[in-house]
Amino acid sequence: MKLKATAEISKASMRKFQKKFGDTSNQALLCLAASTGRECALLTHPMKNARKVQLDAIEKGARKNIAVLPPKLFNEITKKPKPAYRFSRGGAGDVWSKLTPNRILKSDREIFDFIEKTRKPNGRAGWLPYTEKAICKKPDFKKAIVRRRKLAGVTKGSWLGGGRDLSKKVKGGDKPRIAKNFLPFAQKHIDLGSGKYRGKSLGKSEASLISEAPATKDQRIFPKKHAKDAVERAWKKTYRWYRIQCRLKFAK
After folding, report:
1. What is the pLDDT of residues 34-55, one digit of tens each?
2. pTM, full prediction
3. What are the residue ranges spanned by the domains of the chain?
4. What three-state secondary structure class fits 149?
5. Distance between CA atoms of 220 and 231, rounded to whole angstroms?
């Protein structure tokens, strides 16, 4: 996904501003890009009750292809010479399926790996035919879900990572920062994002936010419209910040 914003800048006015204020268009671009990363994180779905919604979705996705059974029933099924389980197909009714060894998950690690293998390129859990679904014990499933819940906020965190990289390039003491209490669950995945900056002459510099999170490709999680909205919101907030700083500096 490519985020792009352009603006016409008067070179004479900018040089006058640089001399008085002590800042440059490149520094303003970096501040804008860092702010855009923050806005991208906010606009990535889910936007309301983000952590709770994501935790619920993680467990729901895991149950799509795994039948979670009481230990006693699991042991009874797996001890049979030809183990089989009756999987539900929703409105289509239930159907019996013979279980191969790779569909009998005997530990939380096997459950975790099975979920990973069945994820789609966009990161979401995909539906498997009943001939490929698996079974597991309830205690093992709970352990696997505890591990998977730590992945909540990956996409949001990746955008914060891109903004963080670019904010480090801003010179001076008043750099854009991410507060510790701002989407703390997402900040755990901040290393999945990065920022690139190419400084050139006035009006030709470039700053890029890069997300390595698979779900960024999913338009339901981060629509292109939200990318544009993030840039526009960052523009307004950066402009407002510079207006305040100018008033404080030039009022002296």
Report:
1. 999 999 998 888 877 677 888 8
2. 0.67
3. 50-149
4. helix
5. 19
